[in-house]
Amino acid sequence: MKERKFSAAQLQDFCETVFKAIGCSESDAKVATNVLVSADLRGIDSHGVARLAGYVKQWEMKKLNTTPDIRIVHETPSTGTIDGDRGLGLIVAQNAMSVAIQKAQNVGSGWVAVHNSGHFGIAGYHAMMALPHDMIGICLTHASSLSAPTYSLEKLLGTNPIAVAIPADKEAPFVADLATTTAAYGKLQILQRKEQEAPLGWVQDSEGNPSTNPHAPKEGGALTPLGSDDLHGSYKGYCLGATVDILSGVLSGANFGPWVPPFATAGSTSERQPPVGLGTGHFFGAMRIDGFRPAEAFKKDMDLWIQTFRNAKAVPGKRVLIPGEPERMAEAERTENGIPLIGKVQEDLHGLAQQLNIASIFAS
Amino acid sequence: MKERKFSAAQLQDFCETVFKAIGCSESDAKVATNVLVSADLRGIDSHGVARLAGYVKQWEMKKLNTTPDIRIVHETPSTGTIDGDRGLGLIVAQNAMSVAIQKAQNVGSGWVAVHNSGHFGIAGYHAMMALPHDMIGICLTHASSLSAPTYSLEKLLGTNPIAVAIPADKEAPFVADLATTTAAYGKLQILQRKEQEAPLGWVQDSEGNPSTNPHAPKEGGALTPLGSDDLHGSYKGYCLGATVDILSGVLSGANFGPWVPPFATAGSTSERQPPVGLGTGHFFGAMRIDGFRPAEAFKKDMDLWIQTFRNAKAVPGKRVLIPGEPERMAEAERTENGIPLIGKVQEDLHGLAQQLNIASIFAS
After folding, report:
1. What is the number of CB-based contacts under 8 A between chain A and chain B?
2. I want to staple B64 with a disulfide (CB 3.0 to 4.6 A). Which of A195, A246, B20, B58 is the partner?
3. For B239-274, how does the pLDDT look when each residue is reduced to its tens digit (9 = 90+)?
4. How many separate domains does chain B show?
């Protein structure tokens, strides 16, 4: 089946119907859908509707509770831990970020660790929830282990992203959202499908040597931490991925390191036993700008920061991008022209429609 | 003059005398000395007594106030901004971290941005202040611009380090402290002195091409952000360095980006005019572990985390290091055998003694 484009509204309708079919409330289905389709709109295809079948599979395996009782289990005025009750990470994350924002409204900042959650979509989306409140938003999550610390032959860390959203005045906000591995796994999956070689530095083979085999992480190898190798600072990517794992996993009381449960579509569905904590974890933060200085003055300075960087003299034919700019460009283009889905994703979604007995817009 | 070893006590006595000679109080001199000599003990030679002459030079240039009125100028229960009053960054940072810890004691976490400060030594030292309180410590600082964002020909960011300190139970704490550039500038300075080539990927030349010239950043080139090049994720290092700059500079009301003032020993002492904020900035955080879960349970899990990573199967002849372990190994060795100082540093310190009319232990 060949690639075809769909409007955001079409994908939203379909996703909502699927989430409701597996038992989500109307409002939860809407929230989860917005997170997923936003990833597609922003050009992060690996984290959009392509994951829908994975969530449904987790529900089938009874690993996903579609009517969770998400609740604060421990807190201070500026911190807290939330039990996601094995709910959709997409929902749990939005809930946790709301709590962080509420705490920031009360005492200047809010920091929320989460356990018993699952895959939550794109980190940047949750961090961006802080922006309309004139807050800086932070969102971290660990993921199942695909990456080996410097000199390790064992995969102990996930791609463990860091997202930071910072408001500006007239300029669009600064939104950084980055895996702490050299390459996100989604980029490797594209090469796997096309049977193309990976650039040296992205993965190592089962003996720890640099490899161009995009399948290496499934064949005893691993993704490298950001930096690629010791000489180029991979121990820094390892430190960052480790920090994300500890804040998301150890601080929340979730699993951590090699115990982080896999997402259903990531290949393996087996978990390292016995678990050392409760499900998957995340970490969220919100800081009120005016907890530090008046928000208006800050946002005007952010405009100057953004303009200074954007207008920097660049290599001929290139320019300096502001974090978040590539995703905004994709969103403008896809809102206009539609979201392209490859044949495999259309087939998966069509299969879901049949399985759940709902109307398919993906029929071949 | 050849390399010679000195005990920590010898260097401490000398540093304290120097700081007092330029007008610091007894207690400020002690605090500043502890930060500096701790860098030497921990093996980070570029940030120890080698910098002492730089601080004195800033004092001579009337850019350093040795009797600062360091005060909170804006705050909420969990956040605040401190004006360092152009004091020694070493002192201002310890003061700001104390405020963050006090706020965390009160409401679970504390976050402090700082303006009107200067070079503060090693970030990890300040982050580690949180450890005895069963808190996670975070410390960021920007620095004068040496690094070019991905595809930029202009240097817009410093080496902008991130430090995170996390307590464990029986194991030593987790202490990550990393520049967000591929290589710290100190590593390049070592190559400059030895006239050795830099590994490809550390620096770019004045046209943005990879270069092995360790002098490149002073000759129109730049350090690369962590990741080395676009294909290997340098935009992630750029995002991280940018985040550190915004939290340290824009959020605090300090200068930012290319306006961050240079440290006196970094070569140039001229500042981009007119300034866009107040001096150099930093950002500090402290979070009470028991703001999330009981500290004892967390620290036991940290032990398991550390043991799991340390015992991972590794490349033959290598092992997986825990963040902070190399610095602890250096500290044990140097406490035992002394701190080696190269001839150039001994000469600088001897010169300081003559200039300030104090006894020198560095006479040739």
Report:
1. 268
2. B58
3. 999 999 999 999 999 999 999 999 865 455 678 999
4. 3
